[in-house]
Design brief:
It is built from two helices and six strands. By secondary structure, the chain is mostly beta strands. It has one domain: 2-Layer Sandwich (Alpha-Beta Plaits), CATH 3.30.70. It has a six-stranded antiparallel beta barrel with strand order 1-4-3-2-5-6. The chain is globular.
Length: 140
């Protein structure tokens, strides 16, 4: 008997499933108004974090830190993995693609093979925050 509906005998199929994470704490930074499905964010281990030894910050260029990977039973949605569960699966940083944006959080899929940023344009950032002028720089 095979796996995943395969009728072949003696062959094991491996099913690669997506690893989903939740971006939490966005209200403490820039919110979620500028996030869009398809954007690439970088997840960076933060071992020096005084509150969580398995903290993973979420960065989006050109803004910088926009939140953290959820790591509490109260903030990790069903189907997502916590920061603690993914912490040892990569060296220092890994990329993730935003899939879903909610009012105060986002869900993203780990993309281990991604090598470069897919930046959002500064126009999108300015529009989201209703800012004017090209000299605006985030203070984070």
């Amino acid at each position: 008997m095979g796996f995943a509906g395969n009728q072949s005998v003696g062959r094991v199929q491996t099913v690669k499933e997506d690893v989903l994470i939740a971006v939490a704490g966005t209200k403490h930074y820039f919110g979620t108004d500028f996030l869009r499905p398809g954007q690439l964010v970088r997840l960076v281990k933060e071992p020096e974090n005084p509150f969580d030894g398995e903290a993973i910050r979420v960065e989006l260029m050109p803004l910088g830190r926009i939140g953290y990977v959820a790591n509490s039973p109260h903030t990790v949605p069903r189907g997502c993995r916590s920061a603690g569960r993914i912490y040892d699966t990569f060296e220092e940083a890994i990329f993730a693609e935003i899939l879903l944006v909610a009012r105060d959080m986002a869900v993203a899929r780990l993309v281990p093979q991604a090598e470069t940023w897919r930046n959002i344009g500064m126009d999108a950032v300015h529009d989201a925050f209703q800012l004017s002028g090209s000299a605006w720089m985030p203070g984070r």
